[in-house]
Structures are given as structure tokens and as C-alpha cells.
Design a protein that fits this description.
It is built from 7 helices and 6 strands. By secondary structure, the protein is α/β, with parallel strands linked by helices. It has one domain: Rossmann fold (3-Layer(aba) Sandwich). Strands 1, 2, 3, 4, 5 and 6 form a 6-stranded parallel beta sheet that branches. The radius of gyration is 16 Å and the shape is globular. It binds flavin mononucleotide.
């Protein structure tokens, strides 16, 4: 069983990349094979139906779908833009649904693995509203399984220690709970 971690931000100092990296570190410390992927390495044009009709999904969307397929559990750290997910995250998720072999809906790769979501923001809500939207996209729109445990991390600019851990022990414990629950669910899915 292997877990994949990524963030809906490619920003150099992204709090959500920090959160995803910390979650991956927790997984590794628990003996789980885990990888962090930066969406910077998977640039895709903004989805456009005419572009898709002319050229099909971009190579990076095919590559990202293939990557997802190698992991039984996926952790997404979602920033919050105007109370929703980032265009980067939505565009990536959307393009992957358009990579379809004959007879496929494009949703198979999402439905056959399990997701955990968490988010960080410098504001008071800790990206909670983006998590509600992301849960809706994944569960209602795509039919994926998303575990109920999640961490919404407020005041993210002051939340991390220099070693990348969370200063607040309760938040650190919550993230550990999320990762452990993801691993348990992913093992069940993989069985
Ligand atoms: C267009 C835009 C809209 C934003 N809207 C929100 C918001 O609704 N709620 C919030 O907590 N932060 C909001 N922010 C601030 C982001 O949470 C902040 O930029 C954060 O650092 C982004 O995540 P990152 O650090 O992972 O890149 C917004 C930022 C941008 C650029």
C-alpha cells in the first residue's frame, strides 16, 4: 500500500505544500511508503473543450493520472481562494477525468482509491470552506471515497516550526489521525 501527497498550490513558500510534506513525513515515520508530488511538475493548460477536441488531454494529465494509479491512497492539501479550491487544483482534477480509454468514464482512477483532504490558510477558517467544496467535487462530482477525518489549519503563517512540524500539539495529533485513517482505508481499498 502506498500513499501520494500533493497540494493545490505550487507557490514557493506554500503553506499547503508544507502541510502535504508534513503529512508525508508522518506516513513515512509510520513505515508507510509515501511520495510528495509538486503540481509544478504537471503543468496543464486551462481546460478548454475546443483544445480537448483538437488535441485530446495534455500529456501531463495522462502522466498525472498514471501517477495516481500507482497509489492506493491520496492526500490533498487544499488552499482556499475566495472560499473555494484553487483553479490549479480544479483544473488538474478536471483534466484527469478527461483521460479516458475506450468504454471508460474517466472517473475510474478516482473511484478505485481513497482520498484524505486537509487545508491551510493564513486566515481564521483554515481553508475549511475550500475543504467543503473539495469534498463535494470528489464525492458528489467524481464519486470518490473521502475519509471524514480532516485538518483545517488556520493562521498558517505562524503554525509551522522550523523543522516543518506543527507548533500546536493538538493540530499535529489531528494530522497524524488523518494520515493513519487514510492508511487504514487505503489498505482496505487495496485488499
Ligand atoms: C485569489 C485569492 C483568494 C483568496 N481567498 C481566500 C479565502 O477565501 N480564504 C482564505 O482563508 N484565504 C484566502 N486567500 C489567501 C490564501 O489562503 C493564501 O494566499 C495562502 O497562502 C494560499 O495557500 P498557499 O500558501 O498554499 O499557496 C486568497 C488568496 C488569493 C490569491
Amino acid at each position: 500500500m502506498r500513499l501520494l501527497f500533493f497540494a493545490g498550490s505550487t507557490r514557493e513558500g506554500s503553506f499547503n505544500k508544507k502541510l502535504a510534506l508534513l503529512a508525508r513525513h508522518i506516513a513515512e515515520a509510520n513505515g508507510i511508503e509515501a511520495m510528495f508530488v509538486n503540481l509544478k511538475d504537471y503543468p496543464m493548460p486551462l481546460y478548454n473543450g475546443d483544445l480537448e477536441a483538437a488535441e485530446g488531454p495534455p500529456e501531463r494529465a495522462r502522466a498525472f493520472k498514471a501517477l495516481l494509479g500507482e497509489y492506493q491512497g491520496v492526500f490533498i492539501a487544499s488552499p482556499e481562494y475566495n472560499s473555494s479550491v484553487t483553479p490549479l487544483l480544479k483544473n488538474t482534477l478536471d483534466w484527469v477525468t478527461r483521460v479516458r480509454a475506450k468504454g471508460e468514464t474517466g472517473l475510474e482512477v478516482y473511484k478505485s482509491r481513497v482520498f484524505a483532504i486537509s487545508g491551510a490558510s493564513p486566515g481564521y477558517y483554515g481553508a475549511m470552506r475550500s475543504l467543503l467544496t473539495l469534498r463535494q467535487i470528489l464525492e458528489v462530482g467524481i464519486g470518490a471515497t473521502v475519509i471524514p477525518q480532516q485538518l483545517a489549519l488556520p493562521r498558517a503563517s505562524d503554525a509551522f516550526d522550523e523543522d516543518g512540524s506543527l507548533k500546536d500539539k493538538a493540530q499535529q495529533e489531528m494530522l497524524k489521525t488523518v494520515v493513519e485513517a487514510l492508511a487504514i482505508a487505503a489498505r482496505r481499498f487495496a485488499a
